[in-house]
User: Fold these one by one.
Assistant:
Number 1:
Amino acid sequence: MYATISETRFKSQPAVTIDTRDGAQAILSLRGGQLLHWQPAGGQPWLYLSEQACFDGSMAIRGGVPVCFPQFAQTGKLPRHGLVRTALWQLTEQRIDDDVAMLTLATASNDATRALWPFDFTLELTVAVGANRLDIELAVTNTGYRAFAFSAALHTYLRVAEVELALLSGLAGKPYRNALDNTLIDRDPHPALAVDGPIDRIYHAITRPLLLDDNSRHLLIVQEQFPDAVIWNPWEDGAAQLADMPDRDFRRMLCVEAAAVRERIELAADDTWWGRQSLIDTRVSTA
């Protein structure tokens, strides 16, 4: 079997499919530059995608890995999570090696974005897929003549068998802001995070990998240059308020997002910043 990168359509939207020689697969929508599906070789899909997600471009796609830029959530005056979640991206580069398939999508500022945020930028999203590993990197280039500041996130929706039984390790001792009541917690005392109700936390100073234990499978989550990690699940009442998500699907997902939120990133003219999230299925053999 040979690795392939194919331009296709998914739910009527232009998309790109990656199939590796080992049998791993990924699907990206050019609408939003959004990873929608990742399945490691010999494993089960790790990304949650709502059956009720909207694919007509009128709103962001619920699930996968949305790109948040230049604002996270409602931390500023821009639309929620920024300006690029419904933009059309372009496939600009692709490469296939023996064990890894990689592609880059790009989008840039235009009259519509400048009407809301008066700065020029280019975004590149590079996705690399191997047998048991996914790397997704966001690069931001300031193409204007003056500096700007931004926040950003890879808003990763992970699929779990039952969210109340999943455990997320690696956050012990970290400070976080509880966005549900806007309180600040100096340190999380728990060795592992168990979700048994609505959660919306922004953890800070993330320097080591996280580990998601989902029943019989495990996912190592590594982030670089993203100093924050957002953990989100709307729970029953919150899910019921989302028209693009089945009411009971809160049990099947947990967002673990690589983010730069607490302190905005200052980017000078002509400079580039990048941040990366890597997902590694530790139960899939790479032999």
Note: The longest strand covers residues 253-267.
Number 2:
Amino acid sequence: MPNERSPGKPTILCLSSFYKGNDFLEECKNQGWNVILLTVESLLGKPWPRGHLDEVFALPSFADRQAIVNTVSWLARTRDIQRLAPLDDYDVELVAHLREHLRIPGMGESTARYFRDKLAMRARCRDRNIEVPEFVAVLNYDRIREFLERVPPPWLLKPRSEASAVGIKKLHTPEEVWPVIEALGDAQSNYLIERMIPGDVFHVDSIVSEKEVVFAECHQYRRPLLELVTGGGIFGTRTVPRGSEIERQLLEVHRRVVDQLGLVRGVTHTEYIRGANDGKIYFLETAARVGGVHISDLVLASTGINLWREWAKIELLQGEKPYALPPKRSEYSGLIVSLSKQPIPDTSAYTDPEIAWRMTDNEHHVGLIVHSPSNERVGELLDSYERRFAHDFLAVMPPPDKALH
């Protein structure tokens, strides 16, 4: 039976195949909406904000798209679902399909493809004169041969629809490439090959309203994600110097990317690399969701802006009323995260007043966020914590076959 606690209120259905997005769910309820969560059975025991959810449903998995379409259509018989939202990157295309099937406002399948398919987003940016590393689809063998002859190694073999650096292989010779392609069999067309460009990697996390970037924060990874995923180590990222040339360049390119990929409203997590040899800013990839690995907490620490909550507001409004960004700060923040050899690591020895957040909800992981008006102070703390984490906590595991969330 449908929920009867809030008759007459509009309803949003949120889908999540991973445990995340509690702030999004809470904000939807705070905005006066009925909130339904559809997740997978293995996540039912997670600490979802039950007090902010009107109903919770679960399926064995999200693998069967038709089963999900049938389930959501069945729910819609007795619930006036007016909004649909994905809480994880893997759910973006699924929810876009559901929106089109139910004719519900929001990002449709064509635009969603640009924010999930690494080949689609690269081709679009290249065609719009945005710098991207040279690439070729793993499709036509003559084109692959020409690419391998023309473009200097190393190359990266990338899955088109995975998140983060998961599934990427670094290759150095054509003799390495062809056996890897052959081993993919019929899955070959789900991959691309890209020139690996050395340089510093950045991410821009933004809020978009009515095709305008109304908020954007630029950060630099301490080490490239690919290096961490394949070799292990300590993850870190920090705010780039405000008003700097690199911030200006990143924001300029990012506005072009958002415009050319056609995002009307929502949030983005986008990665760029500054070529070590030419200083150019190259687009790497983007996603229409909040960045993982507690990047939303990083942004919150330096600006006071909660990306999950602002995304919820924009999804609910859908341009029917103007969106207004709350007042924000312009401090600096840094994030450091590591696998831990201890199941529940003890960070009580880390006592600096700049600490804004501690990881407490993930076994065998340790993390801290610091913030300060001083960029130099954030850098000092991260340098110190990286050395201490290596001594106190660091553990290394084999590369995952799925993205870390």
Note: Confidence is low (pLDDT under 50) at residues 1-5.
